[in-house]
Amino acid sequence: MLRGTLLYLANRGSIRHFVTDNHLARRSARRFVAGETLEEALQATRSLNQRGFSVSLDHLGENVSDAGEACSAANDYIAILDAIKQASLDANISIKLTALGLDIEAALCEENVRRILDRAKSYHIFVRVDMEGAAYTARTLELVAKLRQDYEEVGAVIQSYLYRSAKDIENLIASQTRVRLVKGAYKEPPEIAYPHKADVDRNYEHLLRLLLAHGNYPAIATHDPRMIQAARAFAAANDIAKTRFEFQMLYGIRRDLQKQLVNDGYNLRIYVPYGTQWYPYLTRRMAERPANLFFVISNAMRG
User: Fold this and answer.
1) Active site residues
2) Residue 61 CB burial class (10 angstroms; 0-12, 13-18, ≥19)
3) Exposure winner among 115, 216, 263, 272, fewest CB in 10 A?
4) pLDDT exceeds cutoff 80 at 22
C-alpha cells in the first residue's frame, strides 16, 4: 500500500510542484540529493573521494519530448565527464535513455549516447545506462548490446523484480557487459514482475551469485544488510577477491553501512544524484525501500 502510494505521488505534477517549492522539503532532500548544480555535485564527490568512496554522478531528468531537450541533456552529461576529468575525480556517470530522446526516436537517442560515449572513451570513464520502467527494458538492453560492440565503457542495470532478469543477466555475462544489480523502483504488473518482496529478495540473491561468479566487475547495489552479507559470504566461500566487484549505495542512505564496507576493504561506489528534478527520484527511492521514508522524515524533524 505504502509503496503504491509513493509511486503514485512520484507522477503527480501538482504535488511535485508543491513539494519542490517547499523550503522544508528542499532542505530535507539535500541529505539524499547532492544539490541542484553540477558544482554542488562535484563538491560532494570530492568529499566522498576523500573518505574512500568512488562515485557515480547522475544528472536527474527523464522522459523529454523535444529533440532539442534531448541534445541538451547529452551536452549536460558531456559537461559532467569534462568536469570529472578536469578535477581528477574518482567518478563515473549514470545516464537515462528517456532523457536522451528514447521516447522521440531511437536513432536520436543512440546518436546522443554515442556522443557521450565518445567523450567517455577519450577520458577512460565508465558510463552506466540506468534502467527505467519495464516498458523500456528490452529497448535499453538492445541498445546497450549494440553499443557494447564499439565501447568497453558502457554497462547496464538489471532489476531483480522482473521475471526476465535471469536470462538478461546470462546474456550480459556472455558479452562481458558490466551490470549493476538493483531490486527495482517502478510499479510493475504481476504479469512481468514479482509482486512480493520475499520473491524479489530471493531472486536478487540468486542473481548476485551469478554475477559474482561469472560477471565482469559487477555492482551489487543494495542497502539491505542481508543481501550485503549474502554477497560477502558467497565471495569468501568461492575465493572471489574483493577487487573483482563493488557494492553501490545511494547518497545519504545507510552511511553506517557505507563506512563499514570501506573499513572492511570492499570497493564502494556512492550513487550521487543532483539537479532540479529531484522529487520523482526521491519518492521512487522511498517506494523501493519504505524504510528510507524514515530517514527523510527524521532528517526533516532535525532541521
Assistant:
1) 130, 180
2) buried
3) 263
4) no
